[in-house]
C-alpha cells in the first residue's frame, strides 16, 4: 500500500476481487468542522430547526445566567460554614463514641444544676430563663476553668469592640449637620 503525506489512497470495489482505484482525497477534503451541504429540502428544514433550537437554548441560558451566578456565589459563601458544621458534628460524634471517663458524671451534674435552676425560678419569665442558664454556666465553669476563662475573655473583647463601633456610629450621627432646605425664604 502506498502512503503519501498529504493524501490518502481510496479504493472502490464493485465485484469481489476486482479493485478499481479512485481519485485520492486530500486532508482538506476530510474536514471535521464543516457539515456537508443538504441534498434535499427535508434535511435543510432539519438544519434550520437545529439552528432555531440552538438560538432558543442560547436565549434561555442568557436569561438564566444571573440566577445561576447568584446561586454560585451563595454556594461559595455557604459552603465553608456547612463544612465547619459537618466537621464539628463529626468531631462531636467521635468524641461521644469514646468519651473521657469523667465526662458523663460532669454532664449529669451540670444538667442537675439546670433542673435546680428551673425549680428555683419562681415568678417572672426572665427568671425561668436566667436561673437555669446561670447555674449551668456556673457549674460548667467550675469543671472547665480554662475554657470558661477563654469564653469570658472573648466575650469581653467582643463587647468592647461592639461598644467602640456603637460609639463611633453615634458620634458620626451627631456630627452631621442638618440638611438646609433649598429655596428662598420670604
From TrEMBL:
InterPro entries on file: MIC26/MIC27 (IPR019166), MIC26/MIC27_animal (IPR033182)
| Keywords for this protein | Membrane, Mitochondrion, Mitochondrion inner membrane, Transmembrane, Transmembrane helix
Q: What is the annotated localization of this protein?
A: Mitochondrion inner membrane; Mitochondrion membrane
**Chief location:** mitochondrion
Q: Which GO terms describe its cellular component?
A: MICOS complex
- Family, as annotated: Belongs to the apolipoprotein O/MICOS complex subunit Mic27 family.
What does the record note on quaternary structure?
Component of the mitochondrial contact site and cristae organizing system (MICOS) complex.
The molecule here is called MICOS complex subunit
Q: From what organism does this protein derive?
A: Knipowitschia caucasica (Caucasian dwarf goby)
